[in-house]
Amino acid sequence: MNLRTTPHPRAASVRRPVLLLTAGLSALSLTACGVVGAVSGDDAPASRDRSYDITVGLLLPDKDTARFEKFDRPLFEDRVSSLTDEQGEVVYANAEGSKDKQGEQFRKMIADGVDVIVVDAVDSEAVATDVEKAKEAGIPVIAYDRLAEGPIDAYVSHDNELVGQVQGRALVNALGEDAENSKVVVMHGAPTDPNTKLFRKGALGELDGEVDIAKSYDTRQWLPEAAAENMREAVKEVGAGDIAAVYSANDGMAGAVIEVLEEAGVTDLPPVTGQDADLAAVRRIVAGTQYMTVYKSFLLQATGAADMAVAKVQERSIQFDALARDVVDSPTHKDIPAMLVPVVALTKENIEATVVQDGVYTVKDICTGAYAADCAEIGLTS
């Protein structure tokens, strides 16, 4: 896959700040620049003449990843409602991990004549045929989180290679001077997900030559149970006590990895990475069983996608261009307008400044009875 991310010619030449930038600050900077929720230039005079009675299709890939149902969907629906004076409708479907089911859902939305489709593809290659059908029907398609193949109109996600870099660098830093001689198990995501290739590229760019990669796996459909199977094999072949760290591409797999290590009798757990800032993962970080996760602002991503979808339907070209400040290439198309949201390495030290400050979780959500003492120890109190 040849995916590049470069600043769009319409954008400033300075790349967005990353790593320890909180989503709250990100939202502030985007609002100040007139990107999120703004109407500017030749779009403004006609704003009240635009039809708000629009239908937006939202296709999400699974329910195993907690963020989709808990954050992405409601944030997206609320934003569309706000942008359309509560006249816009979001038609929602979840594929529950099935590319065939998502294809059926996609084609139904086309047949029903929705105005725009936002899709997080189960399989980026398989969805291309339906993207073509939408194009033939005059329905714009915006790829969400994962870069779909076919003639998509835009892409909203994060700098996914950077996600892998953040994870890999965190692991090397955690291992310190012993990194070069440390045996690391690498747990990549699903090979059918184009993001996996980018996470892999970023992570291995940090890990190769810095650590001893003892075992490496792809994980079927990002399933925690598949990650657990792989980890049991790694424990058997490498030895539970000889695994110095585990690169896990997301939090669901990280939880499975940690359970397998504990089952194997490991009491002093090695550093384990993750991604998505699931509540369970944040609690594990508080307790010290998971080293870090990558926090990606659900608010900025979901609202950005809603802004782009509504702007596309209402032909607000200036607002759409302001949102699409980058370009990416997919295996089938080049120079796709893109919005790439910054990411944050979340550790014990910045839980309050990230997910708590951004309203993703409250201290009460995180610091339940089992975690109260650990929260107090790191100063996380309500």
Short description:
This protein is an alpha/beta fold and 382 residues long.
Q: Give the helix/strand class.
A: alpha/beta
Described by strand count, sense and barrel closure, the largest sheet is:
8 strands, mixed
Element-by-element helix/strand order: EHEHEHEHEEHEHEHEHHEHHEEEHHH
Query: How would you write the strand order of the largest sheet?
Result: 1-11-12-6-5-4-2-3
Oligomer: single chain
| Percent of sequence in beta strands | 15-25%
Descriptive notes:
It is globular and about 60 Å long. The longest helix has 18 residues. It is built from 14 helices and 13 strands. The protein is 41% helix and 16% strand. The N terminus is likely disordered. The strands form 3 sheets. An 8-stranded mixed β-sheet has the order 1-11-12-6-5-4-2-3, with helices on both faces. A 3-stranded parallel β-sheet has the order 8-7-9, sandwiched between helices. The chain has 382 residues and is α/β, with parallel strands linked by helices.
Descriptive tags:
alpha/beta; eight-stranded mixed β-sheet; 382 residues; disordered N terminus; 14 helices; three-stranded parallel β-sheet
Secondary structure: elements and pairs:
Blueprint: E1 5-7, H1 23-32, E2 55-60, H2 66-83, E3 89-94, H3 99-112, E4 116-119, H4 128-136, E5 141-144, E6 154-158, H5 160-175, E7 183-187, H6 194-207, E8 212-217, H7 224-238, E9 245-248, H8 251-263, H9 279-287, E10 293-296, H10 298-313, H11 317-323, E11 326-328, E12 336-341, E13 343-346, H12 352-356, H13 363-366, H14 372-377
Parallel strand pairs: 2-3, 2-4, 4-5, 5-6, 6-12, 7-8, 7-9
Antiparallel strand pairs: 1-11, 10-13, 11-12
